[in-house]
Design a protein that fits this description.
Blueprint (H helix, E strand, L loop, with lengths): L18 H29 L4 H4 L2 H21 L4 H23 L5 H25 L4
Helix pairs in contact: 1-3, 1-5, 3-4, 4-5
């Protein structure tokens, strides 16, 4: 039985999204997740060469921060009110940037590795910033 509107016309049915519309909606999130996975793989490769004592201290902090970034990205994608999760995600990206600079100051990575790592983090930061701007969650 069709639901009738106030003017006794059938109410418009909710239209399901086509696969193309779903893919277009999911694409920015998927691109960000791919960049985070690339950063995670590069980070794992770099941290494996750190001194053994630091693999359980600073490296653990970097791994935990990467995990939080991944988690906050999923939370921001799923929530209707994205502002809080997006700002938390932005903060975690900045924390990761500080941890990488600390590794460079302690001479665990070379200037070239710092540059490559910073480029990965900057790209993720730009994507998160664009997401914040698009969501209209600017402070």
């Amino acid at each position: 039985m069709a639901v009738m509107g106030h003017d006794l016309q059938p109410a418009p049915e909710a239209r399901a999204l086509s696969r193309q519309e779903q893919a277009a909606r999911y694409a920015p999130y998927q691109a960000l997740i791919e960049r985070i996975e690339e950063l995670d793989a590069y980070s794992h490769q770099v941290m494996h060469q750190w001194p053994k004592v630091e693999r359980h201290v600073l490296a653990a902090e970097v791994r935990a921060t990467l995990l939080r970034i991944r988690r906050l990205c999923a939370i921001a994608w799923k929530r209707r009110q994205k502002a809080a999760a997006l700002f938390d995600l932005d903060v975690e990206v900045e924390v990761l940037r500080h941890l990488v600079r600390k590794a460079w100051r302690l001479r665990y990575i070379t200037a070239q590795r710092l540059e490559v790592w910073a480029r990965h983090i900057d790209e993720i930061g730009r994507m998160v910033g664009a997401w914040i701007k698009h969501a209209g969650a600017a402070p």
